[in-house]
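Section 3.1: Structural characterization of target chains.
Under the original work plan, the team committed to producing a structural model for every single-chain target entering the pipeline before any wet-lab resources were allocated. The record below documents one such target. The sequence was received from the expression subgroup and is listed exactly as submitted; it comprises 404 residues.
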Amino acid sequence: MKVSCFQENLAKGLSIVGRAVSSRSTLPVLGNILLEAKDNQLRLAATNLEIGVNCWIGARVDDEGAVTVPARLLAEFVNSLPAERIDLELSVRTQTLHLQCARYEANIKGIDAAEFPIIPTVDNGEGPEETAVVLEGSTIALETGGLRKMIDQVIFAAATDESRPTLTGVEVSFKGDRLAMAATDGYRLSVRSVELDQPFAEDLTVIVPARSLGELGRVIADADDEKPVQVTVTQARNQILFRVWGKGTETRGAFHQVDVVSQLIDARYPDYRAIVPKNHTTRTVVPTDSLLKAVKVAQLFARDNANIVRLGIQPGNGDGPGTLQLAAVSTEMGDNVNQLDAMVEGDDLEITFNARYLIDVLSQISEPQVVIETTQSNRPGTIRPVGMGTEEFLHVVMPMHPPR
């Protein structure tokens, strides 16, 4: 193998695939990144057997070949190099990769590429790779920017506790011409739904690990917004594949194409619709930015008291606006009270929420106003952007019961 590429492109590719590298595997090769030079592209690949990432970057290939090298060492070395051309050459006999950039040189010992697990791909119309497992299943193209926003508004609500593996995933359902995502950790629920340009081939519901969608979201941030993300679901192999197109040779530090392949969680997602409040007695509308700032200030005191922030909702008298008061108490540090003008319909109410949960959802809402709908101090409250219906975006938060 003999190949040359720009340092910025290689560093970008390594940052994309590096997050899929296994850190606790008994197989040494899973701690490595695969480099494969072919067809004037350099493919980088990493997997922990649950998620696999392929990334293609532009390169000049003088001699085709492949090798795997330690991920951490390679990434740290490449990131330390100047923004110039990097030449890579493999000694097949010793499986040693020689790297040269400007006046820097290194030899990194690797493992034969034949020992690296095969990461599935899909046929892109040019014929499958000879060594690839080609996924066959239902495929749909999704708008890039919309998919990223949808992921961001859902995955933060998924559980991180591995003792509840089902809740560490996001329910993704295709029904007719709608795509819906839902995530819950038992204390909050986030549901997002959009209309598809074209209906999916069949009604389908799968559970995708939240971590996999998180990695996809990071990749999409640097993708070409003009090209849609290709999604392929194969139930036979219990996998889902996302193909993202990059900006190619337009700029340095860009990729050509990325495939994110993930195992699906084989389980039944809990019926979250049962906890969604069907009605409300108090409806509060406030500016999103003002509420987010007030909650962040309250959390400075709430973080020493289980993140408890008390919301006091008071309707207006006569022509005056209503008020939303946020209070937080720290036994050792002090207390804080913030007050906002709000449009309040219904009864006055006091309810306590986890400040961090409020910050998480408000940070993902770009609309200027949000509506908070509540019933009782011990019943869940709902939060959604003004102008979006409950069928489009809905966030449900369970109240906290502060110590008396």
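The longest strand covers residues 334-346.
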